[in-house]
Amino acid sequence: MKTMRKLAVLTLAGTMFASTLAMGAFADEASDPIPVTLVMFGEESQRMKELMANEIHQKVLDEINVDLEIQYLPWSEYGGGKSELMFSAGEKFMCYTNTEVTAKMVGKGYYADVTDLLEENAPELYEYCNEAEASEAFKINDRIYSITVGNKPNAGENYLMMVRKDLMEEVGVEEINTIEDLENFYTLCKEIHPDYIGLGRGLDPRVLNGSIASEKNMDFVNNFVFTDANADDNTLYSYYESEEFKQVAEIAARWKEMGIIPSYQLSNGEQSSSEFAAGRAMFAVSANDRIFEMMETVRPSAPDALFVNIYLGNEEEKPLLNFGAGNYVTAFGISAGVEDPEELAAYIQVINLFQKNQEWVDLWVYGIEDVDYTLTENGRVERICTDELIHSWMPVNVNFRRYPSYVTDEQIESFNHQADNAIDKKTMNFIFDTEPVKSEYAQLQAVESEYLTPIANGFKDYDENIDKAIEKLKAAGIDKFMEEVQRQFDEFKASQQ
Questions:
Q1: Which residues face 129 on adjacent strands?
Q2: How far apart are CA 443 and CA 475, in angstroms?
Q3: HSE of 137 in the Cβ direction (CA atoms, 13 Å)?
Q4: What is the pTM of this model?
Q5: What are phi and psi of 32, to 5 degrees?
Q6: pLDDT tens sequence across 172-196
Q7: CA 53 → CA 1, 16, 141, 143, 385, distances in Å?
Q8: With contact defined as beta carbons under 8 Å apart, do 259 and 462 qualify?
Q9: What is the pLDDT of residues 30-67, one digit of tens each?
Q10: What would you report as the CA-atom Rg of the chain, rounded to the nearest whole angstrom?
Q11: Pseudo-torsion of CA 238, 243, 248, 253, nearest 10°?
């Protein structure tokens, strides 16, 4: 029998009506399904289309009486572009978010406040995902505007380098611990595989944090601002004006000259991601569990591909940083266009289904057992259909995690213990409200794109171009921007004491 509106729609918390509705006392078996639209980013596979038209759609309908539709947009529309236009128009939908995007969207009034409805409508998120702790990262003025999903050790996200271990073995490289080791591996591998690129999926300055000659353990607020996670103070630094940026840029220039950074990275960054997915890249910026996601992506083209996460630095001097409270994986923002409490509750209930139990997680990630996948005696998963369904990283949860047979015990052990020596980010749970400096922020991003990104990726010489770039930053308002970030950060840290 269908379970209609299983969970509460708390319009007036504490009243008799809300309490009885929370228990389903007035659930109407004949009520029409509530339409919910989930916007995903990327490309929908053929198998996902089939499941959404049939099994998944019907199961969601049976479980919570929701008529679920999933739409797809290119990743280029994430955090802006068409998705932001949809929010501004008040369209009813939800999609991925992060803390920076959340701050921007809330500042513009685009996200719904889910505070009063979240716990009653997402019990499994509270049971399996540390939602009470994780939601702190998305609170603005003590109200919750985004809903977190997942539960995993997350230390070192984008501070790790994911290297093809099978290629290391092929060229006789046993370990990679330093930049010099990585560059030597690239040189040896390039001799055997001249058509391979070195760095796939683009460069992130955090991956070089442990390699540069700086005592600061860079903990970024956004592209323009970082603090020192090792220091016992609240000082913020302007990244592009720092010695740290100079050193990162110098490494990037060397990598560009060596060919580690491909010549088309600025003009066509997606190509380096495509080369990586096709098994023609040697390494990429990583996160703790990204090796599993990437092996699944790469192995259809390179069946022997095996990845290992490497930290290019000394963890004792610069410990890895825990990326977020509650070990969440991703988060969803719901459009403020969803105003009716019953509709808003339905959106939350859909998100809850991503972590409801093992059966639901398996359905989203793998499909139908014995049709799309099988399970081995020891619980390892073997795919029959290789089409991606929901992005496999999205619902990663230590309570429900399944591994393919090709994942090694060593990789699982490393995943489980990556955070053992990590420290919390100093900026954890800090959401910078850009509204007071939104004009400056827009101008700074334009300057970054034109003048700083080419330096950061090794395409323009640092010494020859940095003065003009800094001049442009100053004219765009970097000093006012830094003052505002520092003011908000000081207030945030004071509120934690």
A1: none
A2: 9
A3: 30
A4: 0.84
A5: -70, 145
A6: 999 999 999 999 999 999 999 999 9
A7: 21, 39, 40, 36, 17
A8: no
A9: 589 999 999 999 999 999 999 999 999 999 999 999 99
A10: 23
A11: 120
